Amino acid sequence: MSLKNNEKPKRRYFMPSKILVALDGSECGKRALAAAVEHAKLTNSDLLLTYIIDWTPYSFHTPQELEERHQRRESEIQRANDMILNPEMVALESSGISAESVVRHGRIAETLQELTDEYKITQIYMGRRGESRMHALIFGSVTAALVQSSSVPVTVVP
Q1: Is 99 inside any structural domain?
Q2: pTM for the whole thing?
């Protein structure tokens, strides 16, 4: 069942929930958001749009390098908001869906799980990245890691 903008289903069979959408700026991420929006409309759920910057705290730096790293981190957060999250938030606001957004640094699967706990998420939507099969076999993938470790259902959108 597809709903038009701002149209709510006549009957609600689901309890409202909070859906996390993992965005990465790709077309897969946009399709995951579209699927999550349909789910949110059907269930009167809120969305949490996320962008995770892959970042490891386990490295040694001089004081100058630490300052440069902090500045780079702030710049990356601003760029993620400006280029990925804010445009989607504007579109969601005009469609009447309740949403918030967050950018975090960290290991992607672990950080998404932390956000799931922090925001009491009941469902995760994410796109399937275009990694080669060989790369996924050798290194694994964020999607596979999250599907295996998540405490809530994960919907992977191709």
Answers
A1: yes
A2: 0.80
Contacts of 108 (CB under 8 A, 6+ apart): 22, 52, 54, 142, 146
* 117 alpha carbon, distance to own chain's centre: 14
Q: Which long-range contacts does 107-110 make (Cβ < 8 Å, 24+ apart)?
A: 107/54, 107/55, 107/56, 108/22, 108/52, 108/54, 108/142, 108/146, 109/142, 109/145, 109/146, 109/149
| CATH code, 25 | 3.40.50.620
Range of the structural domain that residue 95 is part of: 18-157
CB hemisphere CA count around 115 (13 angstroms): 27
Q: What is the pLDDT of residues 30-78, one digit of tens each?
A: 999 999 999 999 999 999 999 998 876 666 667 777 778 778 888 899 9
Helix (H, G, I), strand (E, B) or coil at 12: coil
What's residue 102's pLDDT?
97
What does the pLDDT read at residue 82?
93
pLDDT top residue among 119 and 14? 119
Domain count, the chain: 1
